[in-house]
Specification:
This protein is an alpha+beta fold. It contains 9 helices and 8 strands. The chain folds into 3 domains: 77 residues, no CATH class; 39 residues; 100 residues, Chitinase A, domain 3 (Roll).
Length: 282
Amino acid sequence: MNRLLLIFVLVWAAIGCSNLGSQAGREVVAKAGNAVLYADEIPVLFEDGTSAADSAILTKNYITRWAKREFLLQKANENLGYEVRRNIEIQVNETRANLVIYQYQRQMMEEKMDTIIKENELETYYNNNGSNFPLRSNIVKALYIKLPLDISETARIRTLAQADDPGKVAELESLCYQNAVQYDDFNENWIAFDRLTVELPVNIDNEEEYLMRNTFFEGTDSLFTYFVKLRDYKLRSTVAPYEYVKTDIERIILNNRRVGFIQSLENEIYSDAVSKNSFTIY
């Protein structure tokens, strides 16, 4: 017996109604005033393996809740004033219209709007609007290393971390992978400096001054040694680097395209209606 048929059987057992009738092949389960509940409107309320008795109870409870809501709705319609009901209808129609329009706009955008943004378009936008992207925090490109306090390779790792020799990177990585609790160059991306400082065993009160005077940090606590190689920095309130705001620019361009596409769609539909004499102002 399939699930839908099982629901029908349980419904009849639950409410003891086998002759309520049908409409266009749909089985009537219950009536509440002028409202009708059909069997195919009842959701699946139980999983395979639920006993027949429990399934019947779940189904009956659903029908009871449905009836209570329908009786409440009918009573509200009888007693609410005309203006209230009219305002509700206006709001419902407006909400429905907005939902239909939104779904249509989204469908058209998915089918017809160009979502590919080329690198030169991003760069051009940044070059023309860079001043609109001031940094809200100090940012850095850095290498962060956290080592157990007493390991024999600490001195060598310190030397390699301080060096600017690309040829030493493989050796540094190898030593850190073997010994470090954490080793991170953040994929050589810009990160907020305070994201890094929270990992350090010291408080840096003046970030700007510290960044301008230091390129390497070393500190310890009771368990670990910390190294930070500061490869580059940008101070807050200055223009953010292109790489740091590239994702933001992508979102801005894409949003501008959406706005332009929707406006174009509206104007196109409007112009077509006017050309067909479908629009009249009295």
